Amino acid sequence: MQIRFAGIGGQGVVLAGVILGEAAAIEGLKVLQTQDYSSASRGGHSIADVIISDSEIYDLMVTNADVLVALHQLGYETAKSKLKPDGLLIVDTDLVKPDRDYVGAPFTRIAEETTGLALTVNMVALGYLIAKTGVVKPESVEKAIRRRVPKGTEEINIKAFRRGLEVGSK
């Protein structure tokens, strides 16, 4: 499965991709995770690609995304051409106005309401993605969160992830 996260710097897109890739590796799947971002640390486009498979992976980047998670309009505009026509588009409904069918929720607002921090938007969106696709088990994602987020922020990130799972399961 080819998954692309797209947003702007500061939304944690790259970290979401790293955590998803690690969760897949924990499950013994083959993974390729790459990222691309502009030189602007805040406000420029940010993309993380994750390819997950139970067999060899020959692509070096997402070429035909099965899923695009867009957290900002700029990210969506930058990445939408890579989404398959029948691919799943997941968006932050407050920040992205797509020109095709989509699912989503106001991820940034949910992050702020759940943890008090907009920067946990990546974990809310990751939870939503897992609920909608089942690409990896939630427990594997939680293990990867504990390994990858800054020390001391594990519980707040897991809380945001679980809220995303809950919203995505509805």
Automatic annotation (TrEMBL):
It holds the Pfam family POR. Coiled coil: none annotated. The keyword Oxidoreductase applies. Keywords: Oxidoreductase. InterPro entries: 2-oxoglutarate_synth_KorC, Pyrv/ketoisovalerate_OxRed_cat, Pyrv_flavodox_OxRed_cen. Residues 9-166 form the Pyruvate/ketoisovalerate oxidoreductase catalytic domain. This is 2-oxoacid:ferredoxin oxidoreductase subunit gamma.
